[in-house]
Amino acid sequence: MSLRWYTLVIDCHDPHAQAHWWAEALDMQVFLEFEKEVVVLPKHLPTEPLTAENWTSVGPGMVFVPVPEDKTVKNRLHLDLAPHLSDDRDAEIDRLIGLGARRVEVGQPADAEFTVLADPEGNEFCVLSARER
């Protein structure tokens, strides 16, 4: 038996705006949109049903759901994003900022090899140095 990371559920005030923001940021697709739930999935999903052999080959999705309360403290869980070695990390950071992200301070060292950003609703995430894998 094996489990697969299926989705990450994100509480937010505006699930539709957040889902579309993250879909654009990660080059994913808004797959389903309901009033109180929006699902974002990788663009290149297999068209055939998943089998035991390809079950783990599809990356996780994201589900955005509404909550009434504001975010008040640093996230206990966050995403780490990494560009490929062939991509310009600083250009990716600039692109995310252009989409509405902002740089945030969460106590990271001045010489950190990652940049902490927050999405439009304040959820922190990191852009790491470029990775081959």
TrEMBL record:
CDD domains from the UniProt entry: VOC
Alphabetized Gene3D superfamilies for the sequence: 2,3-Dihydroxybiphenyl 1,2-Dioxygenase, domain 1
Domain Glyoxalase-like intervals: 8-128
PANTHER family: CONSERVED PROTEIN, HYPOTHETICAL FUSION PROTEIN
UniProt name for this protein: VOC family protein
Native organism: Candidatus Avipropionibacterium avicola
